[in-house]
Write a structure and sequence with these properties.
globular; ten-stranded antiparallel beta sheet; alpha+beta; 10 strands; 3 domains; Cytochrome C Oxidase, Chain J; single chain; 501 residues; 13 helices; Catalase HpII,  Chain A, domain 1
Length: 501
């Protein structure tokens, strides 16, 4: 056996052995390249197609496989098999991400962080797609494209614009709660390992008796919360823009497996009907005094993907992917994401994106979807591609029917004001959050806000700043005054905002 036969032979994509990998076939040693050098064409053509469309949001991310282990019994709330017994283990894949930046942006940007978790359960894949914050900037999906546009690039300058950001926020008072979190040091986590994760939205649990409960998911980091200061985060952008990615890979490689404790808040249907906040408003939290955290289990990340593109870049998450025992709620933003997220994945990866290994359900799947680009599972073979039919025994299983969900008195379709009466207190929770901060955290948050708002420019600068200051004043008098002072604004202009609301 020769030396070369001991190693793997290089071939074309169709399997033909390659004679020369590095030199093109030419007419003579200095002559032009021949059209018949097919492998040259294959290499260049594939190279031109190596990039798939990057995600519109959450473009830059890191991911790892792991295990979720149940430690406490919650079967009285849900029949989901993933929670069926203490000690049960379920394989998972978790992707972290920044939100607003492009794929090449820095990991330490001031930004929410995505926390998208896929459970490979025997009842199908369950995607819990959230962030490292329990709330969001908006509560109606019709506002989502506009909001994201403000986080991207100005169509004239093609640069990030503080003016766009604060103009939108100042005109969307429901954003204030998330702004307060983002502008604290929680907006610049030290690493993905040192932050919490949240489902953010309100979801449903359904138990064996077909009873519905509303639920919020909290993943509490066992590594402890650690954040950069604004100065440290800015410096890290230049030192290592891939710092969070590197940190996650290296921690898992050395066996320092990061862990999170999953806890849930449970609300009954009756409590939802009378709670002081709209329980389906993603700009609000549920008080943990009213709805204490209930421990469920532990998530551990313990396996780095062997190829970033195959696993992390091609990972596709959608809140539409639920399993028996877990369902949706009237949360408007969640309802919008049920539509938007799978559509984004079909655009990015194709109609058969759930056949990609990282997205594929490892248990049996059965439906009549056929054809489409990159169909790689046999396409149903010679079985019927329609239902009902006389040739197979497939059936829709009635036992998985969910209980009806009452929608209250507002059953007529209409365009309701998202900030109408009873839905327009955008200041109590942000104010409470600020007052719960330590004095040091308050100073840091104020400094970060002043720094961010100082970037507002143009003829509308004063108008935008004054409008946003009114929101801060209504949340907390001291907060508003400190920001106004930092921006050099005469607070007498805001006398109206200082009145009780």
């Amino acid at each position: 056996m020769t030396h070369k036969e001991k190693h793997t032979r290089i071939t074309t994509a169709s399997g033909k052995p390659v004679y020369d990998y590095e030199d093109s076939q030419t007419a003579g040693p200095r002559g032009p390249v021949l059209l018949q050098d097919y492998f040259l064409h294959e290499k260049l053509a594939h190279f031109n197609r190596e990039r798939i469309p990057e995600r519109v949001v959450h473009a830059k991310g890191s991911g790892a496989y792991g295990t979720f282990t149940v430690t406490h019994d919650i079967t009285k709330y849900t029949r989901a098999k993933v929670f069926s017994e203490i000690g049960k283990e379920t394989r998972t894949f978790l992707r972290f991400s920044t939100v607003g930046g492009e794929k090449g942006s820095a990991d330490s940007e001031r930004d929410p962080r995505g926390f998208a978790l896929k459970f490979y359960t025997e009842d199908g894949n369950w995607d819990l797609v959230g962030n490292n914050t329990p709330v969001f900037f908006i509560k109606d999906p019709k506002k989502f494209p506009d909001f994201i546009h403000t986080q991207k690039r100005d169509p004239y300058t093609n640069t990030k614009s503080a003016t766009m950001v604060w103009d939108f926020w100042s005109l969307s008072p429901e954003s204030l709660h998330q702004i307060m979190i983002l502008m604290s040091d929680r907006g610049t986590p030290l690493s993905y390992r040192h932050m919490h994760g949240f489902g953010s939205h309100t979801f449903s649990f359904i138990n064996a008796e077909n009873e519905r409960f509303y639920v919020k998911f909290h993943f509490k980091t066992q590594q402890g919360i650690k954040n950069f200061t604004d100065e440290e985060a800015t410096r890290m952008k230049g030192i290592d823009p891939d710092q969070a990615q590197r940190d996650l890979v290296e921690a898992i490689d050395r066996g320092d497996f990061p862990r999170w404790t999953l806890k849930v808040q449970i609300m009954t249907m009756e409590e939802a009907a009378t709670y002081k906040w709209n329980p389906f408003d993603v700009t609000k939290t549920w008080s943990q005094k009213d709805f204490p955290l209930i421990e469920v289990g532990v998530l551990e990340l313990n396996e780095n993907p062997d190829n970033y593109f195959a696993h992390v870049e091609q990972a596709a998450f959608a809140p539409a992917h639920i399993v028996d025992g877990i369902s949706f709620s009237p949360d408007k933003m969640l309802q919008g994401r049920i539509l938007g997220y799978p559509d984004a994945q079909r655009y990015r990866l194709g109609a058969n994106y759930e056949q990609i290994p990282v997205n594929r359900c490892p248990f049996a799947t059965n439906n009549y979807q056929r054809d489409g680009a990159m169909r790689v599972d046999g396409n149903g073979g010679n079985k019927p591609n329609y239902f009902p039919n006389s040739f197979d025994d497939s059936f829709a299983d009635e036992k998985y029917r969910e209980p009806a969900e009452p929608l209250g008195q507002h059953v007529v379709a209409d365009w309701y004001d998202r900030n109408g009466v009873g839905e327009n207190d955008h200041y109590t929770q942000p104010g409470d959050l600020f007052r719960l901060m330590t004095p040091e955290a308050q100073r840091s948050t104020i400094s970060n806000i002043v720094g961010a708002m100082s970037g507002i420019s143009g003829p509308k600068r004063t108008e935008i700043i004054n409008r946003q200051l009114c929101h801060f004043f209504r949340a907390d008098m001291g907060l508003g005054m400190a920001i106004a002072q930092g921006l050099g604004i005469d607070i007498s202009q805001h006398a109206g905002a200082l009145q009780p609301h």
